[in-house]
Amino acid sequence: MSTPKFAPPKGTRDFLPAEMRVRNHVFSTLREVFEAFGYGELDTPAFENLELLTAKGGATISDEIYSFTDKGGRDLALRFEFTASLARVLASHAELPRPFKRFQIGKVWRYERPQAGRYREFFQADADIIGSHSLECEIELFSLIGTALKRFGLADYTLMVFDRRVLDGLMALAAIDAAKTTDAFRALDKLHKIGKDGVRAEFAERGLPPEGFDTLIGVLDRAEAQSGNAERLGSLLDAFAHANLDDPRGKLATLALTELGQIVAASEANPLLAGRLTIDPTLVRGLDYYTGAVFEAKAQTAAGIGSFAGGGRYNGLVKLFGGADEPAVGFAFGVERLADVLKERQTLSGISSAPADVYVAVVAPEARSFARSVAASLRGHGLRVQVDLTEKGVGKQFQTAEKMGIPHVVPVGPDEAAIGTVDVLPVKTLATGEQRHLSVADLVALVNG
Ligand code: AMP
Question: How much distance in Å is there from the Cα of 334 to the middle of ligand 1?
Answer without folding.
Answer: 5
